[in-house]
Amino acid sequence: EVQLVESGGGLVQPGGSLRLSCAASGFTFSSYAMSWVRQAPGRGLEWVSAIGGGDDSTYYADSVKGRFTVSRDKSKNTLYLQMNSLRADDTAIYYCAKVPWYSIAAASRVAFDYWGQGILVTVSS
Amino acid sequence: QAVVTQEPSLTVSPGGTVTLTCGSSTGAVTSGHYPYWFQQKPGQAPRTLIYDTRNKHSWTPARFSGSLLGGKAALTLSGAQPEDEAEYYCLLSYNGARPVFGGGTKLTVL
Predict the structure, then answer these.
(1) Which of A11, A67, B74, B109 could tie B85 with a disulfide, CB 3.0–4.6 Å?
(2) pLDDT in tens, A51-94
(3) Residues 91 through 110 of chain A touching chain B, CB cutoff 8 Å
């Protein structure tokens, strides 16, 4: 059974940093690209970032480019999202999602088959 | 960036049929946009229902189907059940591996 479990969320002040983690199990983590999607309170889904299975390709939404960094540790089956220079409009539930293929560059697209339960990030003073 | 549009809300009677649509500001939606559909119930994570226009996952109830209709992607629910009340999001793929979600359709079964 595929499981994705996010952690690391919480309350942070504007301008601060936070690192989210997503522990993956139930599939061969190194064989799939992964992604982050967020949802502000009462709002819709927004794609945030993605990383290819080979770590050589990373993609970001314009709203987070230059502030967020996605990475993965295949030895720990864990996906990360380092979030710096956080702003109030980054407040959201952040979901980790599995991409159904290995290479984002080759597929030239990102989509999702399995989702984590989400973790809340609140940016406020 | 492209804008993906969905009906803000729809209502269907129990046992009835409803079609949700997903349009693109760039023009007609085609199979090349690889439309996806997701279901999200209050307080829960999204769940993937349909991928690549019309393909279902093993957990997708048979009453859901995907298609292209009038230049848009469409999700049809035939024989609505109370448990189908949820928010539904579509996702379209554009060049450069940066996907765009629609704003979501709140479906009420009443």
Answers:
(1) B109
(2) 998 867 899 999 999 999 999 999 999 999 999 999 999 999 99
(3) 95, 100, 104-105, 107-110
